Amino acid sequence: MQSMKRANKYDKSVSQKHVMITRAQRELKWLKTLKPRQRQSLKFNLQSIEKSSLEVLDFHNAKLSFEGLKRPIINGLEVGIRRGQKIGVVGPNGAGKTTLLRLITGEIGLDSGSIDIRPGVQIGYFHQDHRSLDFLLNPVEQVKALRPRMDYGEIRALLGRFQFTKDMVKVPLGKLSGGERARIALLELLLGENNMLLLDEPTNNLDINSIRWLEGILSARKSTMVIISHDRHFLNGVCTHMADLDYGALNVFPGSYDNFMIVATAIQERIRADNAKKEEKIKDLKHFVSRISANASKSRQATSRLKQLDKIELDDIKPSSRVSPYIIFNQSKELFRNVLEVQNVNKSFDGIEVLKDINLMIDTSSRVAIIGQNGIGKTTLLRTLYGELEADSGMIKWSENANIGYYAQDHNADFEKDISVLDWMTQFKNEKDDIQMMRSVLGKMLFGKEDIKKSVKSLSGGEKGRMIFGRLMLQKPNILLMDEPTNHMDMESIEALNLALDNYKGTLIFVSHDREFVSSLSTKVVELKEEGAHYYSGNYEDYLLTQL
Length: 548
Description:
Blueprint: H1 2-9, H2 14-33, E1 55-64, E2 74-82, E3 86-90, H3 97-105, E4 112-117, E5 123-126, H4 139-146, H5 152-161, H6 178-191, E6 196-200, H7 208-220, E7 224-228, H8 232-238, E8 241-246, E9 249-254, H9 257-292, H10 299-311, E10 340-349, E11 352-362, E12 367-371, H11 378-386, E13 393-398, E14 404-407, H12 421-426, H13 435-444, H14 461-475, E15 479-483, H15 491-503, E16 507-511, H16 515-521, E17 524-529, E18 532-537, H17 540-546
Parallel strand pairs: 3-7, 3-8, 5-6, 6-7, 12-16, 12-17, 14-15, 15-16
Antiparallel strand pairs: 1-2, 1-4, 8-9, 10-11, 10-13, 17-18
Helix pairs in contact: 1-9, 4-5, 4-6, 9-10
C-alpha cells in the first residue's frame, strides 16, 4: 500500500491527465442532457441481505492449471475479500476472470490450496450466457419460479419497472433480445437473498440508459461484489477496488478503474526509472573497476566498488500477457456512391411490430451508430439489412458492388463444429491465400502455434470475437455491419478494434452500448423508437445536444 501511495506522488503524464479530463467532460455533458421525458427509467430498490462477517472470503495459496496451458490459470493466490468491497476484475481474454468466479461458486475446484468462504455469505451469480434462465418460460413465469408467493399483479408491476410491456411479458425468454434477457437475469439476481454478487459482464447487451440504471442500483446496494467488465465508465461508477488478473496473479488496488490505471502505470514507470539509474551506476562501477584493477596500489578501491556492485539489485518488472491484436480492415473494392437505400421497411414477430417504416439513405464512408433501448429492434434491423431476416414489407437496396461483412451479436452458431482454430479459419481463405496466410491472420489475432491446434469449442467469448475479426480481414468488405462488437473483449482488443474502425475507409453501420466507442466512431446516429427511426447528423455528442 505504501509503495502505491509513493508511486502516486510522482508526476503523472500530460496524456493521462488529458484522458481523464476528457472523460469527465463527456460524462458531465451526458448528465446534463438526461431528461425524464426521454423514457421511463428502470426502478428497483430492494435491500441487500447483510448477514456475513467483515471477512467474506479468502484465497489461501490457491493454484489451478488447465491442460494445454503453459502457465497456471491461478498461481499461489493469496487474497481476501471484505464486506462491502466492490471489486472490478480486469485482465486479458483467457486470463481466468470467469474461472475466478466459478471457483468462488464451487463450479470447479482448485488443484491445491483453499477458498475459505465465511458463514452467512450467500452468493448470487450473473452469468455471461444467462444460464440461470429457462428460455422456455416467459418473464412472468420466470419470476414466479423464484418467488412463488408473489401474485400476478405484483409480478407485472415489478416487470413494468424493468421496462417490460404487457406484450413482452407473454413472450418466451428465448425470443427476447439479449438486453431483455439480461434485465430478467439481473432481476432474478436482485430478487435473491444474496449478500455477495458475482457479475460476469453484466453490461453486455444493455442499452446505454440501462447501463446507467445498473450503475445506480449497484452503487446504492451494500452487498459485496466481484464484477468482471470491459466498460470503463461502468467500472468507474461502481467499483471501490480494482483487481488485475494476469499470469495467475491477482493484484488489488483501491479506487476506481482510472485510479488503477494511473497507479499501475506510475509503479511501472518508477520501476523502469529506478532500474535505469541503477544500470547507469552499475556501468560506471564496472568501468572504474576495469580501469584500476591492474593497478596494485588501488586494489582496495576496486574491491570496494565490487562490493557496491554486489549490493545493487534491479527491481523485477512483472511479465504481462497483455498484448493487443493487430486488426486492419481493407476493402477489396471501393464504393463511390450511395451504399444503402431503405424505404418503409417493417418487421413483426408473433404480431408484435418491431420495425416500423424504417427509411435510410447511407452514403459511402459513413459511420452510422444505431441506438435505442433494449428490445426496440436494433439487432433485428441489422439482421434484416444483412438478409438474415426478411422484411414484411418495404425495400432494401444495396450498392451493386456491395461486399458486406457481418459481425453478429451472438456468433456461437459459427463455432458449433468441433474443428481446430486453423481449420476453422481456413474455411474462409481466398483463392490466392495459402496456409501461411491463415497462420499470419491467426497470429495477428493472438493465436500462437499451439493455440491454432485447439478446438474452437474451447474458445472464450473474446477469442471467438477475434476469430470473427480475422474472418472479416480475409473477406475485405467494403461495408461492415457490427452488432455489439466490444462484447466479451478485453481493454486491449477494444482499443485495437476502435483504431481499426477509425482507419477503415469503407462504410460502417454498428450497434454498441459502449459510450466511448460510439462517441469516437459515429458520424451519424439513428435512434430507434416505438414510433419509428429518428436521424441525426454528427457524432454521439452532437446527438446528445439535440436532446436538450
